[in-house]
Here is the input.
Amino acid sequence: MRQPVYFLSHGGGPWPWMHGPMRAHFNLMEQALQDIPRQLPAPPAAVLVVSGHWEEEDFTVSSSPRPGMVYDYYGFPPETYHISYPAPGSPQVAARVQQLLHDAGFKCDADDERGFDHGTFSMMQPIYPDADVPVVQLSMRTNMDPAEHIEAGRVLAPLRDENVLVIGSGQSYHNLRRWNASGAQPAAAFDAWLRKSLLGTTPAERRAALVAWEQAPAAREAHPHEDHLIPLMVVAGAAGDDAVTTIYGEQFMGFLAVSSFRFGQGREAGKFDRLGAAVAPGT
Here is the structure.
């Protein structure tokens, strides 16, 4: 009954609530997210999301029983600033997260005012559209230390045996200044390295590669700021020695390679990986 853990590319802004031609770019991502509940060994009691849109000096966990919304995006239609994802929070799970981190020597604050940011609600809407599963968010630390975040994930691994689904929400490629055809090569190079590091290595090699991620091909072109990559570190730590499966991959918008991964056992994922295991030239 142990839950797997996921690193998910969550897409842009409030895309599940959007309409028109741009919305079609998210069709495959949406299908992959909708498939996740079917993969799980049991419905989770709660979801813990490590969001690429929340940074604090120390780890901080959302503890409100009724989280609000954080509209942390710009330039979208006016109606998208009134959407709601009304899932409950879980002060009990938040307290458990604090306990696990504190017992391991990490400082972890609780924030009873923090609402869901779009790194959470844009991803959770396709997964649990009825918003009936409690959701708790965990911040990253502003130091963005990969080894420290991997260790924090290792500390949080017992949640998996307590029927809490742990998700790292970010993006395997996140360079908004090259969110166009000019980003195709760095996105492909980094995605190929990421797949090779996660899928074709031992757990020790995987950890070493993630700690040294800045040495990867096109690393800083793919992630000028690593906020959308660091949630992967927490997930990799919580995964321990579990094997990795690619559950989604495509050339998003026709040119940007993006992927999502599951660590641990689950029912076979649907056919939502259009990139395969190909390695980009020169990587």
